[in-house]
Design brief:
The complex is a heterodimer. Chain A is mainly α. Chain A has one helix and no strands. The radius of gyration of chain A is 19 Å and the shape is rod-shaped. By secondary structure, chain B is mostly helical. Helix content of chain B is 67%, strand content 1%. The A-B interface holds A 1, 3-5, 14-15, 18-19, 21-23, 25-27, 29-30, 33-34, 36-38, 40-45, 47-48 and B 175-177, 180, 187, 191, 195, 249, 252-253, 256-257, 260, 265, 268-271, 273, 289-290, 293-294, 297-298, 300-302, 304, 307, 309, 312-313, 316-317, 320-321.
Chain lengths: 48, 498
Amino acid sequence: MNGRGRTGPRQTLSDLIGAALGFGLEILIVVSLIAVAFVFAVAALAVF
Amino acid sequence: MLIRPGREDFRIVAFALGRIFTIVAVASILPLTWSVLGREWHPFASFLLMIGVFAALGQVCLWFRPADDRLDWSHGMVVVALTWLFVPVIGSIPFVFSGHYGSPIDAVFDAMSGLTTTGLALVQDLDHLAPSLNFWRHLLHFLGGQGIIIAALVLFAGGGGLTLYYGEARDERILPSVRSTARFIWTVALVHLIVGVMALGLIAHQFLGFDWKRAFFHALMVFFAAFDTGGFTPQSTSIAYYHSAIFEFFTVVLMVSGAMSFGLHYALWRGPRRAPFKNLEARTIVATFVGTLAIGMVGLASTGVFTSVAGLTRQGFFQIVSAHSGTGFQTVPSVELATWGGLAFGSVFVAMALGGMGSSTAGGVKALRTGLIVKAIVVQTKQLLLPEGAVVSTEYYQSGRRRLTPGLAQSAMVVALLYVALFLLGAGVALGYGYGVQEALFESVSAGANVGLSVGLTDPTMPVLMKIASIGQMWAGRLEFVAVFALMGFIYAWLRGK
């Protein structure tokens, strides 16, 4: 997007790739956070 | 001295409201259609009445066409504040006639909770509510989360769009024009809608054994509530109803996605893809999330609520994400959440108050403000400790290098303080009725930060004044005060101005 409202097949394809990357990253963020939560859980249960 | 608004000012406000009511009337055709397909004739009649009221009011307002329909700052703010008051009131009509609410106040409470994406509910016997009414509850999340005003901006390119946009508590204009920004926001939402409903529907069908129709229904409802960080669910036991780790996982993905700013979505879609991760806001939310998660885990482990790593990780993680994103889904019952004393309770409480990112569907103080306040405190402390005349950097990165000016720090602190005041006000009402400090504060923060987690106070039997206070908290919290103050000022100027 160049900020001038350009649309068309290339823009749509670029958006689709961007959306797929976005979803991939969202899943990666959640998996990373679960890993962090797991480490905290192991550590917390080990202490208490 | 305040200037009394003139006839033309009222015409401008009425005309803009007329456009918005017309849009909501059109959107309300969706639950009406649902009721026809499901042969739910009682809800059908109440939806018809609601559409009639929206359409009639819209048409009456449109008669007041002003000479110039360009909204200035105060007009826009007043329009936003009134929209978020009128839509829940009229939108509660189907609930009032459903027989699932103890009083009209309860119905307005749920409609306000839906529109402000809070998720607290006073509905009775939710498990037997007509699907079309359940759909309307969740559609309110979608309309509120994506923004009725945003929809209006997409459809009408009238002047003054920017003031409406900011009035709805969105402080980041992603694209050069407000209209293209609004279009992008709706595109992101629609793409997530398709992918999210497909993913959740497949899981419900394959792993939970739901037939396709039921799987689609639950997927759609949970999507609306998760992506718009709302918190309503089609069943009274919230997400615990599904008893599925993979369903919870995808729900978390949608909650995280909903709590992300649309600026971040834009960067992920259209680049530059790495830049947003340098932003103060992104770094702040990661820090506060990891912090509240760590404290919550320690708290839960110390109280012995969960004894297995898997149980502690799954329940603790889900509740902290739900609280921090402002969603309010629960995988533990309210009565059990109330027993999470000490650190665990405190971490959920703090996560709710901090909220998600700005220009997202989440509520609360918001990560950027938290980051700016912390930065301001660090700068002040350095200035005190370093020798006189030493230069302390006030730079921070947020879509480019910026300077933290005293005005910016002050405005972040003022909004944060207003949230604290809102939380205390709601808690004060509950304390007046004899509820405990901890539960009163928790429920008040949940309403004011538009979260929806509950320790059991929000109940059809709660006093009317508490219901009205919560409605006010949800409204003011969602609009981040500015539009509310503008409306108060407008009314005051009308009564006392010259």
